[in-house]
Amino acid sequence: MLLISDLHKSLDSVEEMNSVRWLLDVLDELKPDYLIGAGDWGEAMTADDFSEILTRARLITVYGNHENFAIIKSLSIRDGEIIEVGGLRVSGINGLIGRDEDYGIPPGRFMRIVAKIKGVDVLVTHQPPYIPELYPNMRDDEPAMLMAQALERIRPRLHFNGHMAGGCYSY
Question: Domain limits at 10?
Fold first, then answer.
C-alpha cells in the first residue's frame, strides 16, 4: 500500500507537469497493490494519467480542492464507503468542509457521514484536523475543528489527509 496526496499536476511548472511521470516511476519501483490518495491530484490530470496509474495499482482516493472534477469524481470513493484492503477496513470522505460547489461538504452533512463510519482502520480525507501541538501555525477554524471531532468519534488506527501545504497553514 502506498499513500500519496497533493500531487498537484498543473501546467504552471515543469516540476508539476512531470509529477505523474514521477509517480509512475515510484509505482514501477515499489509495485504496491494499492495506491491510497488524499486528494489534490491537480487540475491538469487526464483520463490517460489515471489509466496509467490504474495499470500499476488499484486506486482508492478522495478528491480535494485542486482537481479535474470531471474525471476524479467518478474515480473517488463514496463518502463513508468502507473497502477491505489486505485485512484493513479503509474509508474516506471527499473534499473540504465548506460550501464550495465543486468540493465542499457542508458541516451538517459531514457529521452525518462521520456518524455512519464505524470500525475502520484507515480513514482518508483531504480535510486536515486541528492539531496545534504538531502544527503551531495551523488555523483554528471550524472545518479543522470538525475534522478533529470526527477523528475522536471514528477513532481510526490511521488517518491520512492532504491539504497541508505552505507550512501547514502558515500562509
Answer: 2-169
